[in-house]
Model the fold of this input.
Amino acid sequence: MSIESEFQTTFKRPAQVVARAPGRVNLLGGHTDYNLGLALPVAIDRAVHVAVAARDDGFVRTVSRQIGETGEFEIGDRQPVGRWDDGVKGAVAALVEAGGAPTGFDLLVDSDIPMEAGLSSSAAFLVAVASAVFTLNNRPLDGLDLAKTAQRIENDFLGTPCGLLDQMASVLCRPGEAILIDFRDLSTRPVPLPSNLHILVGYTGVARKLASGEYAKRRDECARAVARLRELGELGELGEKDATTLRDVSAEMLDRRRLDLDPLLMRRAFHVVSENERVIAGAKALEDGDLLLLGALLNRAHTSLRLNYEVSCDELDAMVTALRSADGVMGARLVGAGFGGCAIAVAEHDFDDGALAVIASRYKILAERDGRVFAVTPGEGASVRRVSA
Ligand code: GLA
Done:
């Protein structure tokens, strides 16, 4: 059933605005966004759908089909309470901040992106909600404005210290393409995907939360590595902005300072610097149709995320091993923040349900728990439309 019909059934009146925002997989560029580095995401064919219609009182009623919960709050209530619809409050707060004066509304959300799996379900939720709520109030948002608004809600309202990768991917990707994002100036370049490239996702069955503290810790470690390099005079001539991120640190610089930088900070920095290089090489491999190289880059990225950045876990390593064991898989790595969630693989042919089940059963042997393996197709970025006055 479409989100419009579901809205009609739920609220007994038509929706006025419907919005859709997809999840993403990031082929390369793990933990680079908040270091103003590079990434290479693809939107997937799984998305959050939101439908809204205005009410003439000051209440917001929310219904989530995916988690089977409802909620209600007053439009003036700006207090997150740790509930699934806090992001809706955050979107209202962002609208007020932007000069809007919203009245109440009903909101229905449905999604087929698994939650807390590293596929950007929360960013897609906030992109779709912000897009619907702003459009309902005649202040449509698009492109980078929409991505940044969704990120602001997540950072400032929900207190999750994420970068801008997930939101930009959800808003800006298109079918058949990855985008190469440069987080220094937020520029993007479409990179066409070879027609024989297939992408698999393996869910470990272990949910992960960004707020668990490790993500913020990695951000802090990167900042400390830069501060130390500055102290050593390595980043002296650069301006304030550049010199607070790892973007201007090179592999040679790290090598030169290998005895002066704390070994842990060195590993964190080396991951980010080498990952940016892998993104550039990965974009070229896609353009050249070189899936062997692309796969090797994913494999190297996983090793670096595991050993240098330490964001993997036994289940992610097991899923990567299971994915790599399948004939036609060229490489695999963990995706998203890590600490659970999903791994992705690139393959040179498609996989039927039987072949996907074989990978899942190998995962079960290795990890001693159930996982799920499915194929994703590079899909359409976010969209919004008015369906009635
Ligand atoms: C999460 C964050 C992103 C990004 C990735 C790691 O998905 O939301 O901003 O940092 O982790 O690449």
User: Anything to note?
Assistant: The longest strand covers residues 41-54. The two ends are 22 Å apart (CA to CA).
